[in-house]
Amino acid sequence: MTDAPLAAGAAYTILSTGYTLSTGPGVAATVSLITEGDLRIVFDPGMVASRSKILDPLAALGLSPDDITDVVLSHHHPDNTVNAGMFAKARVHDHKAIYRADGWEDREAEGYEFTPSLRLLATPGHSPEDITLLAGTAEGVVAFAGDLWWRPNGPADDPVAPDRELLRASRRRVLGLADVIVPGHGPAFPADDSAPL
User: Residue 161: which domain range?
Assistant: First the structure.
């Protein structure tokens, strides 16, 4: 079985482009919407300056929080998860389970398929529980990679990563599968040799 999506039926919109500020407190997650058929997935609904940074772009697409079917959390750091509760009707996916209301279904993220166009990979490195959502789109494979990369320029040496070699191995894996990377706190960038390893 290949790691890459087997179809290209998904589409995506970046709802809010995140950032990290080196001059003082301030961090926002890059929050994305991935769709295919009846699926409407929000990836990493984390910290933003205001919830309107997520809700207004959704509303412009004709969607409310109750229209979201699934939320995917790349890992459990608050800056990537803090607004997950806005989507009360959604299933929530992490590295080990699917959660909904008071239900909990154990499953490993590695290889989990929403559809042939949408699959999860275990990509530890920034934290032990990191996952990436690969989306096969008409334009190519898009990797929603959370903090595997914070921004297009890295940091190459992630100061939070407990295992630098594991981080590099996960980055290489994603780069081998994707055409575009959507990082945890910045704009999308090409999955090419300009990406920090």
Answer: 11-190
